Here is the input.
Amino acid sequence: MREIKANQIKNKVKELFLKANFYINPDLMQRLKKALVEENSPIGRYVLKMIIENNKIASREEVPICQDTGLAVVFVEVGQEVHLVDGDFTEAINQGVKEAYQEGYLRKSVVDDPVFERKNTKTNTPAIIYTDIVPGDKIKFMVMPKGFGSENMSAIAMLKPADGEKGIVDFVVETVKKAGPNPCPPTIIGVGIGGTIDKAMVIAKKAIVRKINQPNKNPKFAALEKEILTKINNLGIGPAGLGGNITSLAVHIDYLPTHIAGMPVAVNVCCHAARHAEGIL
Amino acid sequence: MKNIIKITTPLDAKKIVKLKTGDFVNITGNIYGARDAAHKRFFELIEKGKRLPIDLKGQIIFYAGPTPTKPRHSCGSVGPTTSYRMDPYTPTLLNKGLKGMIGKGFRSPEVIKSIKKNKAVYFGAIGGTAALISKSIRKSEVVAYEDLGAEAVFRFYVEDFPAIVVIDTYGNNLYETEPPKYMK
Here is the structure.
């Protein structure tokens, strides 16, 4: 058994949310620069230049990349040999989020009840936490401040097995088409196929944080990613939805075994400010 | 790249009818930040025949909620939020004299109709460029609904705020005219 203190969890979560909100990952910056070369539309190139310049300012001055500093999503892999001491796991994560958002001048964007009062909790908590128990004696965190401009454009479909590949391609492309300029293109499209209706969306979300354009290990799914990306970029939506051939930067698919009767397909859309940070305790 | 047109607030009705879809503009003057919750309150006040906390005549509303201001900065990061969520309230505000909106994303047919009727303009700012946009904001203050936190009504004094005319006073819409050129 290895002891980890709740305070260490709090500090790690805080550090990662600050980092994610100020610094765009190098793989994404590289992809944006490549997009600038590939984009044919003059307005599209203007938009991409602004995005690249914005990301440089944010990291240089340690200010948020986007004013929507997101709902705090945390994926945690807890080693089964870890013994947590001096506190509560969930509380430690939420405390880390609260301190990051208060001390880092990040926007508090969480309302308590979603329907009636919609009162701001003023701490950006509670976080959305997904926990997996894994072998080992470490805790791995992947934090993702998820903006809602793109979250709102996400969708799920319970396709029939007979719908096959074509059904998946059509549904994902249609979701991106309907979203148009709303989710801040050029987007990253996370797609989760299989599992249950709920699990499909979780793996779609997790697929967003994969190293950009690293294809799925299964060549059939990698080909599907490529086909969907080409079809999306043929829509003409372009950067900021103002026309162009770069509507999405990447399509990342993940999949799981599913029931004989179904083929769940979840699409989690992420804006060009795809922020995430990873750390290990 | 086309020339950038300089405009000032409050908007001059004679000048804004000359703006065309796709024009690049730099906006200088006061603009108001208001988003979902503030729009709901505005709408309810108008329905009850009560006065709004700000006079909308000739003004621009920027659909935005900034991050808190860091010490030694004039404003936090602030960029446009998605506009369609304000659509249910927009025609009512346009009828009250609102002349401009800055946001991102589609507007409803009802809003576009109201933009034409009221000879208003929908400007697009680039979503996700909040650190860059905040450079054009010289002053930021809450003028109403402080209890709403990030959703309060803000007054921003801006200098050369970068935006693009997306829907002009004639109802022409850049989201409809530009993407088909790149469709394959």
